[in-house]
Design goal:
Elements: H1 2-8, H2 15-25, H3 28-34, H4 40-57, H5 63-83, H6 88-112, H7 117-128, H8 135-153, H9 157-161
């Protein structure tokens, strides 16, 4: 504990930012009102979506902070798997699979977001509704992503990294 305090002194903690991402990913409106699947996969995808929005906003900023935020995300995935009873030997494989899915989604969102709502909605449909359907929910979520991106652009990176991150409220 003492070593951690010595070596992290003066460094901004990514934990409050990660907690804001998780809180936004758990907001009930997308699940209850839009039809986003309230499943482990649906919640994972919501967390990745919000992680993307923050990482996107912080491009060109403190890379060590962005990396620490990503590491915290995967550390939480590891912890969640262990708490849900996944055996130690399987956790690494599952986290690796989640990392591949996460990085694939981050790349897809990065490519789709500049193209607008229709492009983002296609990616959202593919990620959240792999078995088909969900076009209306995907469109609402795509619009929300674009609104979040604009909202985050209005927040200074230093304020976000200090843990004062605010996402807009999803509209039913």
């Amino acid at each position: 504990m003492i070593f951690k305090q010595l070596f992290s002194k003066g460094r901004i903690s990514e934990r409050p930012v990660y907690e804001a991402i998780v809180a936004a990913a758990r907001h009930p409106i997308p699940y209850r009102e839009w039809g986003i699947p309230d499943t482990i996969d649906g919640r994972f995808d919501m967390a990745v979506l919000h992680l993307f929005l923050v990482l996107d906003r912080l491009k060109g900023e403190d890379e060590s902070f962005r990396q620490a935020l990503t590491d915290t995300f995967f550390g939480d995935m590891d912890r969640s798997l262990r708490e849900s009873g996944v055996g130690d030997l399987s956790v690494g494989k599952k986290v690796r699979k989640m990392a591949e899915a996460c990085y694939g989604r981050l790349k897809a969102y990065d490519q789709a977001l500049p193209a607008g709502v229709d492009s983002v909605a296609q990616i959202v449909t593919r990620n959240f509704f792999p078995d088909g359907g969900g076009e209306e929910a995907a469109r609402k979520l795509a619009q929300y992503m674009i609104e979040c991106r604009q909202h985050l652009l209005g927040q200074m990176p230093a304020v976000i990294m200090a843990g004062n991150l605010r996402f807009p409220e999803p509209v039913p």
